Model the fold of this input.
Amino acid sequence: MKQKMLLLAAVFFGVLAFMFTYQQLKMERSKIMGSASEIVLIRMKTELSEGEKISEDAIEPVKVQRFTNSAARSYEIPWNRSNEVLGLPAAMLLKKGDILTWHNVKSTISSGRSGLALQTRNGYRAVSIPVSSVSSVSGLIKPNNIVDIIGTFHFPDAKGDASLDTVTMTVLQRVKVLACGSDLGYTTQGQQAQMARSYSTVTLELTPKEAEMIIFASQKGSLTLVLRSYDDPNFTHEVQSVDWAFLQKNIEGYNAERESMLSKPGH
Done:
């Protein structure tokens, strides 16, 4: 009888110990799972050999559970950064279903012999100036267009008093546009063929002396780009400085000149 009681007691305490251990394990598991989160990574959709370039068709998004402080998260590539690996060569054989990491791709370092530097001719400089939708012909100016640059400035009045007079003049003619914002006029490898609909800067191809003048002019006044025809090689030599007095004096003559020009055949 005594032995049976001891055996029952041993079984009872054994069951209690098991239940206690199970409960502790369950609580620990809940804590661990609670610190995990779902993230979207890049998974290989097809197999790529070493050196083959990663394309949109070769990858796909995949949802996985990862612990917050997992070391894997530091080198696994999130899906929202997939555009950064498009066009890069694989550093090793990548099998279908592999999770893509930064170790799997070869990074490329630019030699500088590409992009805007390659498009700028010898003896010229690429200079960016700020523009608005108005000063860039409603944002319709594109790379490789030819423009004139007209500036509006506030100069001391010609009479010599302290007041300021507003003057508008043509600063440069037949200037090549190299870029509008980050749009260079072509799509580089790995880029989407989606160019910005608006931009706040235009990059011009200028000589060193012209660059100095345009930078100064952009600081002292406002510059407006005037779009030219590709087929117009002419320079206007009778440039003028337009102020209020000039406008009042010449507006009637300019309208008569325009009327005469439009009456000619082909206009």
